[in-house]
Design goal:
The complex is a heterodimer of chains A (138) and B (120). Chain A is mostly beta strands and 138 residues long. Chain A is built from 2 helices and 6 strands. Chain A has a 5-stranded mixed beta barrel with strand order 1-3-4-6-5. Chain B has 120 residues and is mostly beta strands. Chain B has 2 helices and 7 strands; from the N terminus they run ββββαβαββ. In chain B, strand 3 and strand 4 form a beta hairpin. The chains are: A mainly beta (138), B mainly beta (120).
Chain lengths: 138, 120
Amino acid sequence: MIIGNLTRDAELRYTPSGSAVTRFSVAVNDRFRDRSGNDQERTHYVDVNTWRELAEACGELGKGDPVFVVGRLVNDSWTDKEGNRRYSTRIEGSRVEFLTRGPGVGGAGTRPEPVASRAQPSQLDIDEEFPPEEDLPF
Amino acid sequence: MARGLNYIFLAGTLTQAPELRYTPGGLAILEMSLGGNDHVVGDDDQQRELAWYHRVTVFGAQAESLANQLEAGTPVFAEGRLDYRWCWALAHEPPHRAVARRLSPTRRVSSACVTLSMRS
């Protein structure tokens, strides 16, 4: 089970047999205190895959949307064109709740700020990039 | 070191408007009734609906800010623990409550999901 925000819009596709498949990536903010007593923030990225009715429902999810996902952790491995062994880990979602953004309604998963994109270092101070919660228009 | 596990997740809709109270010490308490309708499959392979209702409580600043956002019918997601008190039972109230650490309104309660299995 994870709670986090989508890093980009969900991608809804159909298999040749007509089943809907939606993939999205969720950024999960993690806060902890390091050995020297400083508060640290780290973001984990988790890929989620959903099927059929759930996939159709998840197709409307957009970048930054907060979600709660229940599912199984699945490991995959394959050999790419260059002959390298590749691995991926994702969640096969069995249930997705669409949370709402807004101040004062909880912890990391419902924080209103969209997380920094993958290209940027994760140590980036998110609070500097975005206005404080009370300045947001919702 | 953890000696047990008490962790619950609820997604449903509020059956009544939440009630905001304060303790004599000034702590805000928001009390809600949450209900849901899950689809389950039993041993007989038949799918059926399983309705549930729970009392949910939120404390502190979160309780105050949520009080204005929530009303009867609001879809809600809650994460927290289950609490049991004798005094609630003695006051003829349900003895169990979910104390939510995190609670937020949702866009809707998702109906599309892989059906829960209750098979043994």
